[in-house]
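Lab meeting minutes (informal)
Scribe: AK
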Amino acid sequence: MSEAKSAKSHASWLPMALDYVPLILFFIVYKFAGIIVGTAVFMIAIVAAIVISKWKVGHVTPMMWLSAILVVGFGGLTIYFNDQKFIQIKPTIIYLMLGGLLLGGLARGKSLLKFVIGPAFTGLDNRGWIMLSRNWALFFVALAGMNEVLRALTSFDTWLTVKVWGVPILSMLFVMANMPMLLKHGLGGEEEAA
């Protein structure tokens, strides 16, 4: 029983840690050793996160694959050209891709979020899923815009600090702001009949 409890515990915190730890390592190493070494560590850490995810969780999420491909690709360009703008463009591309996918699903009357996170949102009715997908799509587009503004108008230090600390805080506030709507549309209730 303790083994099952331990597996469940891993299931809750490990994927989030695997998404976030490479970025934290990038932040720390950049502060002490500069952009090139920081980017190299970021690339190694994201590949290690994929290996650990496959080993400990049993799978690698599409989001982690996408992030890893972009980190390795744009990280390689950052190192090759000794230019930080390449690693700064990565979040914009991810946010626009996610926002575009969600908006594309909505254009077809589907909530793609339901297929990804459905089990975590039991009882949510179809209208709630559509509204949640719309909200996240707009949030991702707004994050892409914010990333580009920060990239153009602030120093790399400021950009990285906002990326590491500000974006997660904004995301948590966004999740909390959606809770009343989710509860109104059945979150936590009985599963909707198919």
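Next up, CB showed the second protein from the same session:
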Amino acid sequence: MPAPLTRRGSLKIGLGAAASLAAPTVLRAEAPYKRSLRMQSLNSGEKLTVTYWAEGTYLTDALKEINWFMRDLRDQQATSMSVRLLDLLYEIDQRTASTNPLYTLSGYRTERTNTKLAQKSADIDEQSFHLRGMALDLTQDFRNPRALFDVAATLGQGGAGFYPTKRPFVHIDVGPLDTWVWPQKGRPGRAAEYDRHQAQTPSS
């Protein structure tokens, strides 16, 4: 699990970590050299439009901005968000009909925040991928909140959950493949499954 970072610590991420990451597959021919995200936090009101990948390289300064934008708002701590998650967000946004930004609800969570939430709701996974910077709760089209979930589920690049509650939202993560619709829950043990897979995968 990545160590939590303060804002200052988040800004010290080295160039090497970003440069060593593999380039994503391009989806649209009209924009082959960059990937951008347009987001707005429904909790803080913050907005962020940022190009995080261009010409085969993840952009370090942009990743720092995203890390802070997706921080734990309760503890004001950030972590290095998974670039696989960012690529998934980009792909989802490219495939949805809505022109709205991605409205975010919950990105990174510290252990303290996740424990507090788990004590209040049985729907909170104590081994949540939010703890790893690998998950995001969000919405986009308020008139059709399920549309984003349908795209994520079709892509099949991780976990996708739809919560048609009073304030509908979609959970996405880049853990093992799974889909669910509340009040159903994600498959138990996905975090352990991910760890086993990582342990069995030879490091390059």
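CB comment: The chain has one domain: 7-198.
No objections, moving on.
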